[in-house]
Amino acid sequence: MAPVRPLKRRPRPARRWAGTLVAIVLLALMLSPVYGMVSASVQPAGRSQPGSWLLSDADPGGYVTALHDQGGALVTSLVVSLGTAALSLALSAPAAYALTLSPVPGAGPFLFAVLFLQAVPGISVANALHGFYADTGLLDSYLGLILADSTAGVPFAILVLRTAMGAVPRELVEAARLDGAGHRRVFLSLMLPLSMNALVTAGVFAFLFAWGDTLFALTLTTGDAVRPVTVSLFDYLGAHSTRWNATMATAVLASLPAAVLVVVAQRHITTGPACGATH
Fold it and tell me: Long-range contacts for 261-269 (Cβ within 8 Å, ≥24 apart)?
């Protein structure tokens, strides 16, 4: 006779409604700054501060101005962010594999150095890179910003990918090697596919690091040739600025790529760091 399992007690309707109400209030509080930003972006030109929170007198002029003035900066941010994500994954994936499975001498101190890099203030890295970039011609270049932003993306990606690759069952690796697979084949055909969630997670966060960067962009760019939107947005800011709608429209446009990327990759992000290698 099969054991009788105790019935789970269902929450009372009043408690469920209370929980739903609290969740709605918290969600409204978290989204209120976003709504305020969108509301201000469609205010008529000439207002120095946001007017009504209602969208009854919506005016798209702010978006027209923002796309005209900041379109190039948005493209620059997109190129730099995609390049940072690609470079971070290209460097961190082999490093994570080596730290996980290969008998690399000094793997422990190297991993400690990776962790230590996360504690180094960004301004110290930016100042150190500025002199090097001035000597090598990397100032005001896409490659220079991609390399600088990768200093934040690579250590994080190594930590995430090493956790995922370390969760791959050793029996799979040993079986692949018994079939004659070398390190390259094990890495490309086994570890990378089984670590796909962690790869997506690391790539998304490397993209977001670069997309929201202001420090490296301010320090390592001096002209208009390569200006991410985080720096170009300062053109609208000032004590006598009356382009509040264009400022907020730029902020909305700058938020869209990151928001869309997070929504598309949310399934991988929620499972990537913990169990990316178990799928």
Answer: 261/204, 261/207, 261/208, 262/204, 262/208, 265/200, 265/201, 265/204, 268/196, 268/197, 268/200, 268/201, 268/204, 269/200, 269/201, 269/204
Name residues whose C-beta falls within 8 Å of residue 264's C-beta, 6 or more positions apart in sequence: none
Categorize the per-residue pLDDT at 53 as very low, low, confident or very high, splitting at 50, 70 and 90.
Answer: low
Q: Rounded to whole angstroms, how far apart are CA atoms 14 and 145?
A: 54
The residue with greater pLDDT, 273 or 142, is: 142
Kindly report, residue by residue over 224-259, the tens digit of the pLDDT.
Answer: 788 898 888 887 776 556 678 888 888 888 888 888
Full DSSP string of 7-51:
PPPPPPHHHHHHHHHHHHHHHHHHHHHHHHHHHHHTSPTT-SS--
Neighbouring CB atoms inside 10 A of 198's CB total: 30
pLDDT tens profile 62-73: 888 888 888 899
Contacts of 170 (CB under 8 A, 6+ apart): none
Cα separations (Å) of 88 from 91, 112, 124, 273?
A: 5, 18, 20, 16
Query: Chain-wide mean pLDDT for the chain?
Result: 82
Q: Give the C-alpha separation, 164 to 167, whole Å.
A: 5
The pLDDT, as a whole number, for residue 4 is 58
Spatial separation of the C-alpha atoms in residues 216 and 126, rounded to whole Å: 6
Q: How far is CA 257 from the centre of its chain?
A: 10
